[in-house]
Amino acid sequence: MRTFILLLLIIASFGSCKSSKSASKKRKSITKTTKTETKPLPKANSIINYAKQFEGVRYKYGGATKKGMDCSGLIYTAFKNEDIELPRTTKDLSTTGDWIDLKDVKKGDLLFFATKKNSRKVNHVGIVTVSRAGYTEFIHATTSKGVITSLLSERYWYFAFVQARRVL
To answer: Alpha-carbon distance 93 to 78, whole Å?
Structure first.
């Protein structure tokens, strides 16, 4: 009985990365010209490159390896590769670092989403890979397609967005 309760607590502690709608890989072109991307930190590039090695890896709740990955596992693993210790759950990540305005996001910043219907409770996270005025791309692990790169301008992600945070 004690083992069962402990197992339930462990499962409940992980944030759900479930997305009720499938993510789209379609790229929308931005017609207006924007300012050039600010120069990112070298660590941010290294974190992003490491995270990209997991593209195509299937989703696995609680996963943090090439055998399966969840959204917070991707963040935890990518940052740990650069010796940056972060919390393992989406909920705990959502209070780590400094809150930043969406217009100020840079490579390596974290984007948080609420993907459950009628809820603004954060349950999904991704890492910004490209950021220019009016254009933000991020890598994350979805339940439907595993680790993918998406655009914040996609309708689903735009409406699910809750906050951005900087940990670097």
So the answer is: 14
Candidates 17, 47, 57, 71; catalytic one = 71
Higher pLDDT, 88 or 12: 88
Instruction: Round to whole Å and give the CA distance between 59 and 70.
Output: 6
Q: Is 13 helix (H, G, I), strand (E, B) or coil?
A: helix
| Dihedral sign (CA 118, 121, 124, 126) | positive
Is 58 noted as a catalytic residue in this protein? no
- Set 88, 107, 140, 165: catalytic member: 140
Average pLDDT, integer, range 54-81: 97
**Residue 1 CB: number of other CB atoms within 10 A?**
5
Query: Of 88, 91, 106, 124, which one is the catalytic site residue?
Result: 124
3-state secondary structure of 42: helix
Single-letter residue type at 61? Y
d(CA 93, CA 15): 10
17 is catalytic: no
Is 10 marked active-site? no
* pLDDT score at 26: 36
> 42: pLDDT confidence band, cut at 50, 70 and 90?
confident
Render 62-86 in DSSP notation, one character per residue: T-EETTEE-HHHHHHHHHHTTT---
